[in-house]
Amino acid sequence: MTDLARGKNDPIDPIALSVIWNGLLSIAEEVGSTLRCTAFSEAVREAQDFSTGIFDRHARLIAQGNFSPGHLGSMPYVVKSALEYHPPEGLKPGDGILVNDSLLGSGHFPDCFLITPAFLEGELIGYIVNIAHQIDVGGAAPGSQKVLGVTESFQEGLRILPVRVVRDGEFDPDMLRLILGNIRMPDKVRGDFRAQLNANTTGAERFAAFFQTYGQAQLDRAFEAILDRSEERIRDVLREVPNGTYSFEDHMDDYGADTPPIKIAVDVIVDDDEITVDYSRSSDQVPAAINSYINYTRAYTLFAVKVFLDPMLPQNEGGIRPIKTQAREGSFFNPAFPAPSGGRAALQIRMFDAINGAFAKVLPDRAMGAFSHWCNPNLGGLDDETGQSFVVYDLIFGGYGGRAHCDGVEALSPVMNCANIPIEVQETQNPIRIHRFEMIQDSAGAGKYRGGCGVRKDVELLNSTATLSLLSDRHRFQPYGVFGGQPGQLAETILNPDGAAEALGSKEMREIRQGDVVSYRLAGAGGYGDPAERDPAAVRDDVADGYISRESAAKTYGVDVD
């Protein structure tokens, strides 16, 4: 908060500003904790695939909870779009607006935003917003994230343009019936919707009490100070970066069997106190559900730029002002509706990796090797015992790339702030058995500072049949190393690894049967710096921990471990 509390001739006392700022963060975090503690699905309760934000009465993002950048970066545009459908003067206490549209929202239908106006004595004072990834919203496959064979967004499930689903503090029963009648998991989605409403109601009450305590006039001054100082800080940091255009290219595997790779190309243009990230040289949009609508592209661009410039700076309307995101219309990162996009989650790390590669040319001490990517499979069908639908929504995270001063960490969520879902929860909720969940030896990219290891997770189906929708990458293009660091080992997905092993594509869809085992194996992350410069003691520690083998220690690092 020190950066926000500095400055001369301020219209508000710095101590008061600091107290107000931390109060806003507290409200945003309480909204998140309420949502997490009352949610029904593993996606929200365990994987923490949700986010929260606080907006002032002018629909400007003031503060956010410490949650997913893909949601938070989209939120300002979602709120403004929703208010075009529902102007503020028509809103009442107890209202709630729901939207999940890919173009207006965060890029795919499972992400459902609930916008709740906050009032004090009949006057609109702001908006409490949360977004939760719903475990299913209909469409062609369980989990609503099928990539292959989906050629337009109308095949992806229920599309909700901004609609007032909450009145007088309760869901409209007809609207709720319409939504739940079009999805596979109505009980879990109903529970998560209720959790979203609980969370926003709590936030609106706290926000009203906040205004009673500090008053409209003082809070108006505080909000302006927060936004202006955030903008000033990021502009100051930008002025320290040499002007120029810094470019980088990488590739996604493909968008289905016998399809070409998808080029990810960025040009990072620094011009004094402004920065533009341009994706226009990337591939055209593709006829599969993996395109990135512009709001999602903006979201991870804002996050990546902020990480490199000042990771401790609050993300709000002020901090966003100097950062511009652009991509030609019809490109992979700015597709034209109705391009499908259900699997766009696979892109978040790749956008960050591309921007990281560009910044490595001008800010080497802040760059890192490429992430190990991640895996977001959905496995679903009808449960043999209950006759009800089930969806195994999974998040599997590998390693971070090596950095300028340390190794990449293991099995930690990259850039999205979610979590690996506990095995016990998945086995209790679904007809599956998990045989392995372990790090992959010798998968990390070598370097002075090595990358994090890939992760292996083997899942057996106990049900008679199920539909598997894969969403991963790095099966063909290794996570790159930087400054002499080596790339990480490629990812792979194997069906029945201990039997008639069959390699699956990273976006493949497959019907599997009882007893089949799917082995998800994530790539290793890229290394940083020349492996010859690695401390031999660190190599011996890695062997002791099982991260690398004795053979690899000798061959790659020249260190004999007895």
Q: Overview of this structure, please?
A:
With 562 residues, the protein is an alpha+beta fold. It has 2 domains: 14-231, no CATH class; 368-562, no CATH class. Helices cover 29% and strands 22% of the residues. It contains 12 helices and 22 strands. The chain has helices at 14-38, 42-45, 69-85, 173-180, 186-214, 216-239, 294-309, 317-320, 348-359, 423-429, 536-545, 550-557; strands at residues 50-56, 61-64, 96-99, 111-120, 123-133, 163-167, 170-171, 244-252, 262-271, 274-278, 323-326, 374-375, 378-382, 389-393, 396-397, 432-439, 455-461, 465-469, 492-495, 502-504, 509-513, 517-521. The model is unreliable at 1-9 (pLDDT under 50).
Task: Summarize it.
By secondary structure, the protein is α+β, with helices and mostly antiparallel strands. It has helices at residues 14-38, 42-45, 69-85, 173-180, 186-214, 216-239, 294-309, 317-320, 348-359, 423-429, 536-545, 550-557; strands spanning 50-56, 61-64, 96-99, 111-120, 123-133, 163-167, 170-171, 244-252, 262-271, 274-278, 323-326, 374-375, 378-382, 389-393, 396-397, 432-439, 455-461, 465-469, 492-495, 502-504, 509-513, 517-521.
